[in-house]
């Protein structure tokens, strides 16, 4: 997407990504730029984000004592901030 910022005074600035889209890595470092006196052209910055690496997890839920698989157990998958990413339920084989 595109974003425009106007009416910046002459000076040095940093563009800091506050939040990234789901599935993308947040920028690790701010992007620095400068507005100089007499600047007549619009400064264009291209900021690229990397997609997050994807992986899979298989869960098997079993009773601690009998080791029988347990169907219908609901798990939440949460990100580092505790936000629920998805919810899964174990099947008749105890897998989710």
UniProtKB/TrEMBL annotation:
Answer yes or no on keyword Secreted. Answer: yes
What family is this protein classified in?
Belongs to the serine-aspartate repeat-containing protein (SDr) family.
Any one Pfam family here would be SpaA
The UniProt record lists the SpaA-like prealbumin fold domain at: 1-45, 55-96
Instruction: Decide whether keyword Secreted is in the record.
Output: yes
Could you tell me what this protein is called? SpaA-like prealbumin fold domain-containing protein
Q: Which keywords belong to this entry?
A: Secreted, Signal
InterPro entries to which the protein is assigned, alphabetical: Ig-like_fold (IPR013783), SpaA_PFL_dom_1 (IPR041033)
Organism (species) = Bacillus mycoides
């Amino acid at each position: 997407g595109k974003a425009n910022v106007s009416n910046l005074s002459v000076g040095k600035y940093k563009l800091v990504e506050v939040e990234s889209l789901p599935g993308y890595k947040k920028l690790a470092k701010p992007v620095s730029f400068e507005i100089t006196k007499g600047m007549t052209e619009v400064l264009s910055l291209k900021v690229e984000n990397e997609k997050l690496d994807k992986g899979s997890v298989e869960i098997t839920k079993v009773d601690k004592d009998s080791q029988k698989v347990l169907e219908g157990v609901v798990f939440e998958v949460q990100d580092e901030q505790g936000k629920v990413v998805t919810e899964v339920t174990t099947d008749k084989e105890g897998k989710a």
